[in-house]
Amino acid sequence: MSIPRIPAVLTVTLNPALDHTIEVDSLALGEVNRALSMQVDVGGKGINVASCLADFGVATGVTGQLGRDNVALFEALFAAKRIDNRFAYLDGLTRINTKLVDRRSRQTTDINMPGPTFDAGGAEALLGQIELEIATLMPACRWVVLAGSLPPGLPADSYARMARTARRHGARVVLDASGAALRAAIAAGVTIAKPNRAELSELVGEPLPTPGAVLQAARALIAAEHGPQQVVVSMGGDGALFVTAHEALHAHPADITPLSTVGAGDAMVAGIVAGAIETLPLAEQAQLATAFSAAKLARLGPHLPSAGAVRELARSIRITAAR
């Protein structure tokens, strides 16, 4: 068995999943559909981020909660990629999500389960254990990624609490969340926030129909009290905006035919972190993060091609000034 490396990045996944992906030729609702292929992949946003970082050669650890009754696939992935497994194991099953991939339309339909339900005592025990893992790994681990949904019963400020703990121990925090969890963690202070356009629109309370409107909202978020140092907003077919207090860039999407869009945003988060670790200029970080996302589009599961292939793809990503 391979020995995990001391992680440079710790990802927190409070609501992991097994992603059951079924590919059909053309999805017909209310009818019998014959599958072309089926696979089960380890999932959950933070785990996806860790898996992509590991493929790129970044030493990574993972924590959060897993149901011990179906943990084998998670453990196999962590062992194969030398990811440091610091999950809390709970009774029961980790949730199972279903992804229906329509090959003809190239659309993916997600059916996501809510995850386990926590009472107040269970929530406090879990969050306390994760805080202990964060404290144990610092200062060797300098980046903490907080990503994904919260299962029922975990308080909306769970990520805010993790962010404060990480910052207290000198780590930089990357946030990829939505709704009340996003709002609370932003107020607590994070280094980089990566909402998509819909999540940012909900956060600011107004529609963001154009990249210009997205840019204005991202700048306002940075300028706010306790605002992040950087905001990255993914906009689907419009690419992504990479915004700091002094610079704003538009990364245009790669010309790639997607096999599945599942996990593309998580791969972008991994690319953002990889670029930050390498202290790349913003334009090169934007190219690398977009290449991570584009490379993920061409395959199922939380996996990337070789680091060399990702870097070659990055050089082809077009970057322009955001307006």
TrEMBL record:
<protein>
    <recommendedName>
        <fullName>Phosphofructokinase</fullName>
    </recommendedName>
</protein>
<feature type="domain" description="Carbohydrate kinase PfkB">
    <location>
        <begin position="13"/>
        <end position="302"/>
    </location>
</feature>
<keyword id="KW-0418">Kinase</keyword>
<dbReference type="InterPro" id="IPR011611">
    <property type="entry name" value="PfkB_dom"/>
</dbReference>
<dbReference type="InterPro" id="IPR022463">
    <property type="entry name" value="1-PFruKinase"/>
</dbReference>
<dbReference type="GO" id="GO:0016052">
    <property type="term" value="P:carbohydrate catabolic process"/>
</dbReference>
<dbReference type="InterPro" id="IPR029056">
    <property type="entry name" value="Ribokinase-like"/>
</dbReference>
<dbReference type="GO" id="GO:0008662">
    <property type="term" value="F:1-phosphofructokinase activity"/>
</dbReference>
<keyword id="KW-0808">Transferase</keyword>
<keyword id="KW-0547">Nucleotide-binding</keyword>
<dbReference type="InterPro" id="IPR017583">
    <property type="entry name" value="Tagatose/fructose_Pkinase"/>
</dbReference>
<dbReference type="GO" id="GO:0044281">
    <property type="term" value="P:small molecule metabolic process"/>
</dbReference>
<comment type="similarity">
    <text>Belongs to the carbohydrate kinase PfkB family.</text>
</comment>
<keyword id="KW-0067">ATP-binding</keyword>
<dbReference type="GO" id="GO:0005524">
    <property type="term" value="F:ATP binding"/>
</dbReference>
<comment type="function">
    <text>Catalyzes the ATP-dependent phosphorylation of fructose-l-phosphate to fructose-l,6-bisphosphate.</text>
</comment>
<dbReference type="GO" id="GO:0005829">
    <property type="term" value="C:cytosol"/>
</dbReference>
<dbReference type="InterPro" id="IPR002173">
    <property type="entry name" value="Carboh/pur_kinase_PfkB_CS"/>
</dbReference>
<dbReference type="Pfam" id="PF00294">
    <property type="entry name" value="PfkB"/>
</dbReference>
